[in-house]
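Fold these two proteins, one after the other.
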Amino acid sequence: MAEQLDLFQAAGAEPARGLPAGAAAPAHRSHPPAPDQADRDLVTDALGTTLFVEAGAGSGKTSALVGRVVNLVLSGVPVGSIAAITFTEKAAAELRHRVRERLHEAAT
């Protein structure tokens, strides 16, 4: 069963469930953590669960999904067994490009 997350919610909203309190942000972030950082981390790090990510335009869905796909591949999941579904072909092309770019970076 997929868990639906209300990601990228308004400031002051209650933090996500399932992550340890005070979990450190990944080192690649250079800006302060978002108010919903726990939800964002859940997308990239909770690899053992199926998620449905729903958020507004420009909120970071593609970045979160790229992080999740890359983490799945790096953890040993065959890329052919990962389903990442987007709304448009343009979004799918952008996702594919970013995943390839990040995997290339991880390999070098």
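Now the second one:
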Amino acid sequence: MRRKYETAIKTRVALEAIRGQKTIAEIAREYDVPANLVTLWKKAALENLPGVFSRRAEKKERDWEEEGSKNFLLSDEEKRRAHRPGRF
């Protein structure tokens, strides 16, 4: 039966491999995972890293646009409350 690994473990292993302070074998032994998985997770992390930043920028832009359309529909009093967090 195949073992399933949590995302947090995969992330930690990939980051350790990217840092390069330990060998793949050392990381595999430390986390009790096969060395080929350490290599695969490192490769996947490096390949997907550029997408993380572009998705963040796209999400931020979408959120900004949504927030702007919400503010357009709010009354003046609601807008004032929205700009003063913690006050009612």
